[in-house]
Amino acid sequence: MDKDFSVISASRQNNVRDLPSPRQLIDEVYASDVLTLDDLRSRLSKPVFKSLQATFERGADLDAGIADTVALAMKNWAMERGASHYTHWFQPMTGSTAEKHDSFLTPVGDGKVISTFSGSELIQAEPDASSFPSGGLRATFEARGYTVWDPTSPAFILRHAAGATLCIPAIFASWNGEALDQKTPLLRSSEALNRAVVPALQLFGASAGTRVGSTLGAEQEYFLIDEQFYYQRPDLVMAGRTLFGAKPPRGQELEDHYFGNIPDRVLNFMSDVEAQLYALGIPVKTRHKEVAPGQFELAPVFEDSNVAADHQQLSMQIVQSTARRHGLVALLHEKPFSGMNGSGKHCNWSMSTNAGENLFEPGETPHENLQFLFFCAAAIKAVDDHQDLLRISVASASNDHRLGAQEAPPAIISMFFGSELTEIFQRIESGEGGRGEKKGLLGMGSAVLPNIPRHAGDRNRTSPFAFTGNKFEFRAPGSSQSISLPITVMNLIMADGVAQLTERLRAHLDDGMDLDKAVGEIFREVYTQHKRVLFDGDGYDEAWHREAEFERGLLNLRTSLDAFPHLTSPKNVELFARHGVLNERELEARQEIMFDIYFKTVNIEGELTETIAQTVLLPDTLNYLRDLYASGESRAVKALIAEMEGLTDELYEALQELRQQNAELGGEAAHDKAFHVRDRVLPAMLKVRRVADGLERLVSDERWTLPTYRQMLFVK
Ligand code: ADP
Ligand code: MG
Fold it and tell me: Which of 345, 471, 487 maximizes ligand 1 atoms within 8 Å of its Cβ, making it the mutation to test the pocket?
């Protein structure tokens, strides 16, 4: 058998043994490991439950007097499900989640233990915070950080083979209340959105008690490879992506992978993932093959965006841990294989009232459609005013390999509404009004405004920010990132757009203008001023990149390092502060962390490239050359030796250059080090890779020890 595939063949034999046993019915399993409102209602007295419910639903402060009672109920619920420990589960600025487990057990002498869990333990904990990124917010002399229960996201149980842990979603902040995590600004931005949108809705006649939040559904793309290859690829183990690898003879050219039938081995993995996600109350809905070989997707039904962000972190964690049980490794990196499609995490975002009204759903009544138009105007203004923030929210060293490549949205932020809505917008701008009624249009009940199509929004896969009928799909987020910052930014900029337009609307109404006329006026103004950000064509097209940047004046922040500096621009400092989402110090800290993580990521890759080339690829090459020297003097051998020697010298030279760049730092500040690795280390890595990939195509399969793309990419 070909050496390539004997490994896969062996691993298939291994896997069968660990298959999970069939599960119960979905509706029995669903949310069985989530502490739901129902669970609490049945365990708490009516007054206690009512008080807690106010905290859950309206964000009212938790009544300290009931904390002990609630903690006891939670502990009992968790222990009945086999949990021995609890943890505040939080999201520091590493992009992943953190947990520190404490046991419920307390020794009481004489070899006895009792189980305890107090209200104060439920509400607040103090992990040793000095080792989390703080961007200077928490100097070591004041190294304290607190995690505080976030009651708006339900507690849940995480299981492992030998036990279970009660996880309590929490925020993480420094002693003086500055955010050290991803969740705090997200929660603050939700409040900002509510504060801005409710007054607008009131002008449209919303009932008292209306609250508004955002909804989010995140589609997760990922690659699967056989675990045995993973262990033979130090670049995958340590950097999450291949730093070497020639293009295989067969990649995604045949376009036969997308939506193709899913091999049993992968389906077993997917079913296992889904069973666990169901137990956690994560409404995962869709599974399919993606474009590249070995690439797949998982998508849930949308939820409240704070809960969705927690669920997204859990989904990534469970996809990764479950893959291992199946002898597979899930790669969440944005670009694990060069020359293949990368992976994104499309964030579907909308706004909804507490009565479940989707504010971006064109409505049934003229009134609702005026409102829809008003929010579209706010969205257009928001995206144009804050292209920089949307770009920053998806910026990372790893996503830089994807944005702007041929399959991902470009680094330019533009917006897509589809031809039908765009035509409506243009008619409003030109003042054509309600003439030319068409079938299938929803009446605006207005002589000054045209009707809205019922199912607007055609398809465009190249737009970074597309309206898809009743929500926006932000396609630029990367597959490995936390979705908290993109959500925070979408909430914040929409809050800002709505707040500003609401002021204008109120002024018009106070002047005695009719609602439809006022909305028409505002829409026209906004559209004329901001339509440069709307683009329906091919976002991958070079001509568009030129037009966007040079004719329309849109930002083209090609790499993360072009984007990060904008975070602390006066406009953004003022915006984040005005809506109470992050203060200047918090923003500066985040920016510092972004530069630092960027530097560290590329620095690790640079060192890895050097090490692998020096200690694996060069020896493989020299071994093969030695074989050739012993193979006689035929023309073929001589030609091969000449070609190999040329490339080997090139590899050696490229390595010297990389080694030198790796040894330098470019400065002291995170900012300077980041620019050094972008401008010096990345190009030097690429040079080494190009030569090495050329050698991979020449060296005998027996001698080339790294698994190749053609081996790894076809999980069968
Ligand atoms: P499409 O066919 O456009 O991909 P789907 O209905 O399959 O649309 O939805 C894709 C994703 O968008 C799913 O995760 C879905 O839950 C999410 N989604 C749908 N409606 C909303 C909404 N109102 N708010 C946020 N996300 C939504
Ligand atoms: Mg989609």
Answer: 471
